[in-house]
Amino acid sequence: QQPVQSPQAVILREGEDAVINCSSSKALYSVHWYRQKHGEAPVFLMILLKGGEQKGHEKISASFNEKKQQSSLYLTASQLSYSGTYFCGTAAPLRNDYKLSFGAGTTVTVRA
Amino acid sequence: ETGVTQTPRHLVMGMTNKKSLKCEQHLGHNAMYWYKQSAKKPLELMFVYSLEERVENNSVPSRFSPECPNSSHLFLHLHTLQPEDSALYLCASSQDPTRGGYGYTFGSGTRLTVV
Lengths: 112, 115
Hints:
The complex is a heterodimer.
Chain A: E1 4-6, E2 9-13, E3 18-23, E4 30-36, E5 43-48, E6 54-57, E7 60-65, E8 70-75, E9 84-94, E10 97-102, E11 106-111
Chain B: E1 4-7, E2 10-13, E3 18-25, E4 31-37, E5 44-50, E6 53-57, E7 64-70, E8 73-79, E9 87-94, E10 104-106, E11 110-114
Parallel strand pairs in B: 2-11
Antiparallel strand pairs in B: 1-3, 3-8, 4-5, 4-9, 5-6, 7-8, 9-10, 9-11
């Protein structure tokens, strides 16, 4: 089952902060975050492997609450380059591989 | 260049045509995937190949036929498609299929239009 992301879209001015949430009705083994710019491939940002873990990529960070089956992505002091669609992916084991299911995405627009 | 190359970038085909999408990676990854991306919808997993063996066919219609001749190449053969199959088809690869700790590397996709 696919995770649910919120909000669907957010508009920011440069320097503002935003939070994107990802929740699942199933147990999360790991959470991935990707960003896709228009006409380009989704780009891997980070992966969180266990509850309580936090990671950062530039001024983008994420947390993972295993008990609540939720992850949040934090955009801090946003830059124009942060514009794009952000997807969370939740992984579940599938035989010898991990099957990744994606949320519908959150479109972030950062304006000058 | 993301490390995963997809060709062609754009494809227009009639409903009676047969065409193939190609994906190539030289990252040493052991798993490859096909995803379908439609407007306003989540990425849909279609097929998974792990160590060249198909481990997932996510209820995909038989008009889509995958092929993985080796760990570096993945194909998606298309025949008698429907207009609702028009979408962006993304290929991805990952490093170690036995562990969930590695991110996926995506190609730029093939924009498919069925007329």
